Amino acid sequence: MTFHRQSSSPIEVLPRDQAREHLLAIADILAKVLDTSIRIPGTSWSIGLDPLLGLIPGIGDVIANLIGTVILGIGTRLQLPRIVLTRMSLNLLINGTVGAIPIVGDLFSVWFRSHARNAALLRAAALKPDRETHADWFYVAGIIGGTVALLLLTIALIIWLIYKLWTVVSV
């Protein structure tokens, strides 16, 4: 018994360079929609869906970052160096963490534009023939170092405030 596959429309496989450009174009469009799709009248500023979704308490920033992970997935599909993917992940983490702060986080998202940053990183790394990433290592080390320093300062501030409140209450 033999089976013959009848196909009404064969799947067209794009050449490697065309497929890469197609994925980069998708990332660019997604970044534009999330970060700069709506021009604010009378200004040179523009915003996207990310800060608007951030206005939805609790879930808005999560939705925006989940949509933004598509750009990260494209980077994985294009086999970008891990350090570039780490840098892109940090951009999403920073945007999501600061974005969780009501109002301030939404303003930060308008300024930081993590998705546009990630699309630019994606394009630069995908088109770079030598894939040298020393600058990325310094960036990631600086972000991690700055985050740890900020965390330690925040903990120190909280401890100091608790100590001051304790001395005021116990007197």
What does this structure look like?
There is one protein chain. By secondary structure, the chain is mainly α. The protein has two domains: 16-132; 133-171. It is built from seven helices and two strands. The protein has helices at 16-35, 49-53, 60-77, 82-99, 104-112, 114-127, 134-170, and strands spanning 38-39, 46-47. The chain has a two-stranded antiparallel sheet with strand order 1-2. Strand 1 and strand 2 form a beta hairpin. Helix 1 runs antiparallel to helix 3 (60-77) and helix 4 runs antiparallel to helix 6 (114-127). The longest helix has 37 residues, at 134-170. The protein is globular and about 80 Å long. The model has no long low-confidence stretch (mean pLDDT 85).
Mean pLDDT: 85
Question: What is the CA-CA span between the terminal residues?
Answer: 94 Å
Rg calc: 22 Å
Indicate the proportion of strand residues. under 5%
Q: How many domains make up the coordinates?
A: 2
**Largest sheet, described in full?**
2 strands, antiparallel
Uncertain runs are none
Order of helices and strands: HEEHHHHHH
Q: Which class best fits the helix and strand makeup?
A: mainly alpha
Helix content: over 70%
Explain the layout of strands and helices.
Blueprint: H1 16-35, E1 38-39, E2 46-47, H2 49-53, H3 60-77, H4 82-99, H5 104-112, H6 114-127, H7 134-170
Helix pairs in contact: 1-3, 1-6, 3-4, 3-6, 4-5, 4-6, 4-7
Q: Which terms summarize this structure?
A:
71% helix; 2% strand; single chain; 7 helices; 2 domains; globular; mainly alpha; 171 residues
Summarize the structure.
By secondary structure, this protein is an all-alpha fold. It is built from seven helices and two strands, in the order αββαααααα.
